[in-house]
Amino acid sequence: MKVRRAISALVPAGAVALVAYLLVTRGSALGAALVAVPPWVLAAAVAAHLLTLVLRTEAWRTVLRAAGGGGVGHRAVHAANAGAFLAGTLQGQAALPTRVALLRRFAGEDAPPVSRIALGDAPIVLFEVCASAVLAAIGSTAVGLIPGWAPWAMLGGSLAALTALRYLHGRFRAHRLAAGLGVLADPPLRNRLALVVAGFTAMAFLRTLIVMAGFDLPTDPAHVCLVLFTMGAVGLLPLGVGTGPAAMVAALGGSTTIVTATAAGMVVSAATVLAVLIYAGAVWLVGSATGRLPKPVADPGTSTVLTPP
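Given the sequence above, the corresponding structure tokens read:
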């Protein structure tokens, strides 16, 4: 436990120290790289990430429908995800518990039990891993930073896990906890989820491609896929907004200057934060204009009431 806490503290501190070191030693070069990028690059990256957020919400809504949350309104789902995205920009691991808590507050009795909501994330994550494995396979063919067999092993493991979860759902269908995996047993919803995940993966690819092109970095599919895969892997660490620079440096540090890679990563992180703020602001503005903001509902057994994000 102490080792885990130490790692959790040292990893983000190391990332911050690296960025601080670059600002101190190469601040002028880093600033020049950022200023040289056309404004449309950031605007286009923000737009692509906004579409990613919308599609992620749609993926989660699809899972909720299969888990018995068909009565949950669009307002509650978007408001819950807006809060989750805001929390996720600071700490990726905070997104899921924030989403679960907000949905329970905004949807009340219409929301599925917490266990179903949490378990419902598993199919989305596994479909994402499948997409990431394909990206890694494309990236490894030309860049060679990871063994060629590793992506296919990851893809096979993910498909095996999906098959196992589908079997467990059928085996324990009568147990209410299994309802969280219901999307895997419903072909139309399962196919819909796979398409939505492919859609927001494509938007993430487009965002990365736009930023890399803006910095004159390699934009062939292999390099873009490698960067995108690295961002997903680095995103598992508690780096927050430092994910973009750390991933860019890790993926491209050997083929380009560290200043350019860091600047590109900073733009990716900036686009992510701006898109999340716009998404959350749009949810609040549309709800205010239509008088349809979700009303917080006290969760059974507690007097705590949360306000919309």
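The chain has eleven helices and no strands. Try to locate this feature in the token string yourself.
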